[in-house]
Amino acid sequence: MRLPRLVVVTDRTQAAGPLADVVTAAVDAGARAVLLRDRDLAEDDRAALTADLRAVLDPVGGLLVVAGATGDAVHLAAAEPFPAVRPRLVGRSCHSAAELTRAREEGCDWAFLSPVAPTASKPGYGPALGVEGFARLASLGPPPYALGGVVPADVPALLAAGAHGVAVMGPVMRDPSVVREYLTALGP
Predict the structure, then answer these.
(1) Using an 8 Å Cβ cutoff, are 129 and 161 in contact?
(2) DSSP string, 45-81
(3) How far apart are CA 39 and CA 145, in angstroms?
(4) pTM to 2 decimals?
(5) Helices 43-57 and 19-28, packing angle to 10 deg
(6) Range of the domain at 152
(7) How many CA atoms lie within 13 A of 79 on its CB side?
(8) Which CATH number do you get for residue 14?
(9) pLDDT tens digits for range 41-82
(10) Residue 1 counted as domain residue
(11) Contact criterion met (CB below 8 Å) for 149 and 117
């Protein structure tokens, strides 16, 4: 599978409305990959939300990745153990050279490398890498997505620095129409 250039990361605490509605608007704006991150939901609620998001993404051939779950496409936290049975697609959050190397050695399909810029969505990680720091680390792991404080104007420099694409949470959760700006910046 060809990895998408934009991954929308969910956070219902920042969402401009019900999460399924925000994701629907992001998909309507052109998003084709979504990471369901909301790990704090009760298991039944998370399963229901997963089904709702699949119903939004499946008709457009989109990809739903679920954080820390078993299934077809999963995304792991930096310290989370690799699944005993490898999912079809698996990514990992990374913040350092060692974490990127681990993700590459595990055979991850992608890595989220963060934080690129200071962000209230991801406190406690840092300092921010900036474009230069991202460039120094980008080749150490699987195809990297820039995450954390990335705005559309940053995208060309991050692509030049080795980013496969960008993962965006806060801006899309607050205004899903911004997906169009990210996709324009990412190009064809």
Answers:
(1) no
(2) HHHHHHHHHHHHHGGGT-EEEEET--SSEEEE-TTSP
(3) 20
(4) 0.95
(5) 20
(6) 6-186
(7) 0
(8) 3.20.20.70
(9) 999 999 999 999 999 999 999 999 999 877 899 999 999 999
(10) no
(11) yes
